[in-house]
Amino acid sequence: MWQATILTLFPDAFPGILGASLPGKGLKEGLWRLETLDIRAFARDKHASVDDTPYGGGAGMVMRADVIDAAIQGAEAKFGKPARKIYLSPRGRVLDQALVRELAAAESVLLLCGRYEGVDQRVIDAQGLEEVSIGDFVLAGGEVAAMVLIEACVRLLPGVLGNAETLGEESFGIGALGGGLLEYPHYTRPAEWQGAVVPEVLMSGHHEKIRVWRQEQAEKMTQLRRPDLYERYVMSKKNAKEEK
Length: 244
Ligand SMILES: C[S@@+](CC[C@H](N)C(=O)[O-])C[C@H]1O[C@@H](n2cnc3c(N)ncnc32)[C@H](O)[C@@H]1O
Description:
The chain is α/β, with parallel strands linked by helices. The chain has helices at 21-28, 65-79, 97-105, 121-126, 143-154, 164-169, 207-225, 227-243, and strands at 2-8, 32-38, 51-52, 62-63, 84-94, 108-113, 130-133, 192-193, 196-197. S-adenosylmethionine binds at residues 88-91, 113-115, 117-118, 133-135, 137-142, 145.
């Protein structure tokens, strides 16, 4: 069963939103497992300090290598070695759906949530931690980033969403839309709202026409909003044609 082990100074923050809706139901039903360890429990002095001032000076505090190392070893002793050991960090590889698929396919992930200025470089190196960022901005801590990563992974696990088709059709999917396009627009009742009507083709009941319209919309949307993704899509289509 897929397991996420979180090392954090704020274990009470979990499961948080991960305990709600379909991921929460999956958690209760044992489709995936969430474990949290309080980094402070691995502090070595009587003040339970987990951080100290940076060598070289400068603002803020740095999380201590010895404490983080002990916390990781503690997690491994309790739950076994994780398939992936990750430090959530703005310097890391930016999380995208390809990495989410990789992590969801792994047995287990250990997620280290930083605070303050971050973590002593020596423990990142010694533990071989992969750094993963959720985007080019700076959060106050890694907890929200860990939740983002977990939620994205958990919804890919068998049984969590219930309807596997949803996954194939959505943005960045590898299913029906193919090639990592953004998703086409959605509509529901009422058929007319504030003078705006639902595109006629969606009410036609003609499955092939609807499929073609959605594909075109997805392509248009991607070309307009994410030319980088669109270029990749065009290239992959071209390569697939050449391989035939
Ligand atoms: C205030 S940040 C440290 C920022 C660091 N001094 C820097 O400039 O790169 C504290 C912690 O929040 C987490 N964090 C902040 N931004 C993040 C992001 N974009 N993705 C993942 N984790 C992030 C990391 O765990 C980090 O150690």
